[in-house]
Amino acid sequence: MSKIVADSIRLGKPIIAVSVQYRLNVFALGNGGGPPNLALRDQELALQWVQDHISGFGGDPDMITLAGESAGAIYCHAHLVANARVRQVILSSGSLFLSSPQPWHLVASFRDKVTANLKDLDQTLDLETASASQVVEAVRRSGVQSFFLEWEEPFNAWHTKTGSAERLLLSDVTKEGAIYQAGVWATDPSDIATAFDASEQYGDELKKLYHVYPDRPSSCKNGALDFINDYKYLLPIQCLEKSFKDARKPVFRCLIDEANPWQPSSGAHHAIDLVLLFGGFDLSFSPSAERVGQAMREAWIKFISGEEPWPEATEKYYGFGPHGSLKTLEDWEIQSRRRIGLAEKLSEMESSFLDKTSRGLAAGKVSLLN
């Protein structure tokens, strides 16, 4: 994060960046005999430390911004609805809508499967005595993806809570569904159609909206990825934006559409925003990517400093890319970059049915090998 800190000093708006380590996967959850959500509590402890001590580093405990991308955004949204003592929040490519809090019985089932698999490896093993490699193997054998959060009281009505934060910055990329691409493309088209049918009364309409036809494999698989993108990323952002506007709190929305500079044909995929924002790689070979990354850092710094991140920020979305373009967006431009109309149609359907399709398409298919 040194580049964004250096840029903040150059702009005369110095910030202090703090990154946090926390427990992951099965260790991120409770065991039923103690507090739940241990990863969340690790983060709460770190946040409390920052509030208690950041003034000693020249920081302001009343000006804390909490920011996260993907899984980090899920946790940041959780802190938001739990009234974390932060002034503002940045959610990039994720929210609780992506992985909502789960009931204890599902968490317990996951722990039990992992523990049973450890016993298969060695009867003397449990989660406290197994090595890291043994736990990884036990999790792999379970065939179950980990949960990020288990349900507890602060998550009541989380869908519409805006917490105590005063401002919110939301960002997404063009192809959020890219992390599911390898898994979806390995799925038989008939199984994709079956997953859409799981939405029961909405199945036929969804298949028509997303061009899911088993005899057209490419269209079918692209439609599945588009549905995941719209239901798990785009629609949640629309909901969060509305909740903050209804609460009369400033909310800023931007679209990150600058393609991967090493392989532009892959587009602006999930996590490319981190490459651009933090500048951890030498992007001098791609002037457009460098230009977008610089502009993103300046916008983030302005937001963190309590300013509006771009012109007409509360009225207009902002586009970072493609091809190095930087501009406020008119409604027709937003419609051409995101499937806003389809997201609105999804918002009119019962989420409990859409969740069935989402699970059928996405469960177990996340991969960074895309």
From TrEMBL:
<dbReference type="InterPro" id="IPR019826">
    <property type="entry name" value="Carboxylesterase_B_AS"/>
</dbReference>
<dbReference type="InterPro" id="IPR029058">
    <property type="entry name" value="AB_hydrolase_fold"/>
</dbReference>
<dbReference type="GO" id="GO:0016787">
    <property type="term" value="F:hydrolase activity"/>
</dbReference>
<comment type="similarity">
    <text>Belongs to the type-B carboxylesterase/lipase family.</text>
</comment>
<dbReference type="InterPro" id="IPR002018">
    <property type="entry name" value="CarbesteraseB"/>
</dbReference>
<dbReference type="Pfam" id="PF00135">
    <property type="entry name" value="COesterase"/>
</dbReference>
<protein>
    <recommendedName>
        <fullName>Carboxylic ester hydrolase</fullName>
        <ecNumber>3.1.1.-</ecNumber>
    </recommendedName>
</protein>
<feature type="domain" description="Carboxylesterase type B">
    <location>
        <begin position="14"/>
        <end position="316"/>
    </location>
</feature>
<keyword id="KW-0378">Hydrolase</keyword>
